[in-house]
Task: inverse folding
């Protein structure tokens, strides 16, 4: 799960997907992580509003931001991102990777409500983080149903 800085959207999506997988007792079948296309926030915890939003839904995360690597393209089956800018960056990076096996697509592709883009809530408020959470929950649930 990839976003630009890996401190808002992608850690929310990662935590949501990890919880769905755990609830279905499928941890042995899935390796879940999130990353950034940029290196701006490497090593940082998720935004406090993202953590608060997750806690409000009974989800904890110990994620630290990291930048996507060549190995990610070679080892993950799916790389899901939040918006077109992420998608362009990931496709460009994947073209430089030999043996890229990851299917790269927008997480919003799986949204039953057809909201393709998960907007960055960084400059918004708590309500915007809740919107991201709800979108991620819908998309991750649909993705898991498709590939489980």
Result:
């Amino acid at each position: 799960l990839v976003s630009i800085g890996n401190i808002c959207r992608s850690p929310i999506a990662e935590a949501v997907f990890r919880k769905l997988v755990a609830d279905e007792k499928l941890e042995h079948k899935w390796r879940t992580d999130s990353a950034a296309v940029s290196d701006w926030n490497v090593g940082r915890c998720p935004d406090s509003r993202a953590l608060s939003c997750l806690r409000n839904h009974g989800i904890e995360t110990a994620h630290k931001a990291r930048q996507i690597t060549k190995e990610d393209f070679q080892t993950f089956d799916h790389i899901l991102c939040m918006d077109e800018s992420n998608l362009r960056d990931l496709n460009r990076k994947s073209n430089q990777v030999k043996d890229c096996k990851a299917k790269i697509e927008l997480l919003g592709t799986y949204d039953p409500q057809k909201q393709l883009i998960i907007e960055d809530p960084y400059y918004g408020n708590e309500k915007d983080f809740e919107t991201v959470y709800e979108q991620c929950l819908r998309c991750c649930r649909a993705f898991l149903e498709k590939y489980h």
